[in-house]
Amino acid sequence: xxxxxxxxxxxxxxxxxxxxxxMSGPALLLVGLSVTGSPAAASALLSGITVSAAVGGPVxxxxxxxxxxxGRLLAGALAxxxxxxxxxxxxxxxxxxxxxLATAVCGGLLGPALAGGWTSQVPRVAAPEGLxxxxxxxxxTYNFASLAGPALAGAVAMVSGASASVVVSLALIALxxxxxxxxxxxxxxxxxxxxxxxxxxLASGFRAIGRTRPLARAxxxxxxxxxxxGMLVACTPLLGEQxxxxxxxxTFLLATLAAASLAANALLARRPGLLRPxxxxxxxxxxxxxxxxxxxxxxxxxxxxxxxVAGAGTGPQLTxxxxxRHREAPERLRGQIFTTGASLKITGFAIGAGIGGPIAxxxxxxxxxxxxxFEVLAALAFWALSTAPTRAQKKHTHRPTQETRTSP
Length: 408
Known about the structure:
Elements: H1 4-36, H2 39-51, H3 53-66, H4 70-91, H5 97-108, H6 116-119, H7 122-125, H8 131-160, H9 162-175, H10 177-181, H11 198-211, H12 213-244, H13 250-270, H14 277-295, H15 300-328, H16 334-362, H17 364-387, H18 391-398, H19 402-406
Helix pairs in contact: 1-2, 1-8, 1-9, 2-5, 2-16, 3-4, 3-11, 3-16, 4-5, 4-9, 8-9, 8-13, 8-15, 11-12, 12-13, 12-14, 12-15, 12-16, 12-17, 13-15, 14-15, 14-17, 16-17
């Protein structure tokens, strides 16, 4: 059974932070497009606030694992992320674009705090026997945020302008500060002065991901898959303009995707035994391939069907990814593995967002077909890591038998 009150508080804080985070990306995309008039500049702004996650995530995770009060560290990261959004909003159109992009890159260092930083704390607020259900509920907060964030960004932008949507997104993140501050202590944190250097912990975390086959396979597959997702998100304003008549309408396509994800994960929260984590990760990439090819038709009906198909795959993928990490991560490296995995996914998303906008200015359908190609690449990576022999198998294969050693 879940620790009812602790988990309820956690879910409220995580939902607010993640909704603000999911809203901030589309809001920055819309405000960048409205101020600069350039899809490439708008996608560069979105890419900037996500691309640095690969650096910030592992370091933040290592610090989170070492902190006796991880919630206070998390709260500080949320506050700094809010400040970065505010600076971007106030400087866009008033200061040179390179300065704005540099601010976005600095803020992006803290992006993993809104994702893996929360999830790594789930075992401290849920009883061990309730972890599978808590894991599904935690994934539901992502799905709800993915549903509410883009839709809210589009709605606020239509009513009050793109700048207002950025303000609302940072306000939601700020609402999560009290919950983050009061998260439980880490009883296994090393005393001050007794812990290893941060660099040593970073190396251990990366080794754990690289040497544990299920972790490596899930991480690589999800990162490649998110390149395609990033391209899709970068295309949504143009999809909204061409298929639905307004750039802001593109956020409702993302809301459709999130609604399907929410429905799929709601089923898993009720029946967590249905999940087969490793197979689900592969299935989600195949679903996204079909969805992206369907969306390349730029037909209104086909677009909404494509988003529903994509959501039905990506929602369970996230739950499956959490399940693999909780199953395989060593306890002392749990925070780092979650934030590192999240940061690598965010970086994959950033790469997709960065290339999706420029390709879309040449051909919108071509950008979506390219995104589908990354999903195929993700599925091939999963297959390759499933069939390649492990290090132990290689040693066994090349170890000479007694007959070989003694034969003339």
